[in-house]
Amino acid sequence: MADSLQLPPEHWLDFLACQSEQTYNTRRYLFRRIGLRSGVVVEPGCGAGAALADLLKTRPELTAIGVDIDPTVLRAAPEGIERIVAPAEKLPLADSIADAVLFHFSLMWVNPRQALAEAFRILKPRGHLILAGEPDYGGMLSHPDPGDKKTMVSKLRRGIARVNGDPDLGRRIGELASGAGFEVLETGMASKPRRYGKENLEELAKLFRFRQMFHPRSTTIWERFARKSAQRNGYLEFLPVFYLLGKKA
Predict the structure, then answer these.
(1) What is the model's pTM?
(2) pLDDT of the residue at 12
(3) Which of 61, 72, 81, 227 is the most exposed place for a label (fewest CB within 10 A)?
């Protein structure tokens, strides 16, 4: 994915780290709920492996397998993670080997039905599916609002779709998991409104750096507005990001 989106490696790794931080508490909660302390966890579309690395800090007995189609980003994954270059839709892994399969901001970039079918295949009976964060750009809110925010969001969504992403996938994760044969145990919200002010302008810049790839012109206008608002009284933004916990019957 990083190659197709043409983001400089250092910026891409920065953004992946921000995504991992955003859902840290959600992932901790979900893994605590399933009680998995040992066994095999596979993350298709793992990027640089930030989510798996966090998991291994508290559960070192786990075997963590990170799968990504981009070898450049995958090389940045920490030691302790087994790395495999492959697409999420065709995992080179045997049937029924995983105790949990984790997706983290990755299902929106692949064919979700094929990727979930592969997750179902490699999971052991009663193994768990964890969708730790999938966004719904169609539900974005901000305050204050740029006058033409609706147009800007529409252009951002179309830009994501142009590179084969699904900008609104988050709202469909329950339907998709059920369709793949999983029992859905829980769904919820992994995000909350974020305020940007003078103290965290660099975080705001990272956010818009990522969006620049999809529609540079409107994103530049949007970023100027957001930055000015942040420097005055603050800029608030909410991107709905949903999680799901499922189980293979």
Answers:
(1) 0.91
(2) 61
(3) 61
